[in-house]
Amino acid sequence: MSIHLAEKALIESRSYRVRALPLLQPLAWLGRGWRDFMRCPLPGLLHGLAVSLFGALLVAAGWRHFWLLIGAFTGFLLIAPLLVTGLYAISRDLERGLSPTLHTAMSCWALRDGRLVVFGILLAFAGTGWVLTSALLVTGLVPRHLDTLEDFLRYVVLAPEGLVFESWLALGALLAAPVFASTVVAMPLLLDRPIGVMGAVFTSWKVILEHPAAMAFWAALLMGLTALGMATAMLGLIVIVPWLGHASWHVYRDVVDGSARAGRDG
């Protein structure tokens, strides 16, 4: 990225102020997300079903290659903000007093400027990079094939020496943390406002830097609920994915103040 583009992105991000945020505000986001889901359930259920089926297919295809499967699942978490973009559009219309439909969710991908597509490609690269890195780390440090969950638990998680699992977690956190910081409000901001991709990313980082504790709590809720959905043979994701997708819209609306920018855009 050139210096000129970086300066432009910084100027764009400064147009969006970050509001004060109580530590437990993430619980309110979950409540509002559930309310939106209940008001317009069909698009959310279809999103959740699609993710659940994809997860089931991933397990079926990679069950005998668990060393790759575990990386694929964690990589999936990196691109999740992209997959629920349509649900942000649903929540936005509900907020405006409109009656959104499945078409509302699908039409958000018809943006001519392609910013969501560009950001999606970047997230896909990040997710793919983690899958490959995870596979290389595990296969490089473990002196045998990991074909099953039992193998992964025995030779990685419960390995008596080598710190394989600790290294895997540390490397995953090292990649996941900046991706989370770059996406926590970026996707709904791109959907809602005429801001560039890097401007949205810088705004997202600003939210993290100003409210690290509350956003760490939100990240923990995201990971915990997603893990719960996966632990129920993927069935829980049918509900959890739309719930968290709608809640993520309210993260953006609560934290990012674009009133000054709105005046210029209008």
TrEMBL record:
Keywords: Membrane, Transmembrane, Transmembrane helix. The keyword Transmembrane helix applies. The chain crosses the membrane at residues 42-60, 66-90, 116-142, 168-191, 212-245. Pfam families: DUF2189 (PF09955). This is DUF2189 domain-containing protein. It comes from Ideonella dechloratans. The lineage of its organism: Bacteria, Pseudomonadati, Pseudomonadota, Betaproteobacteria, Burkholderiales.
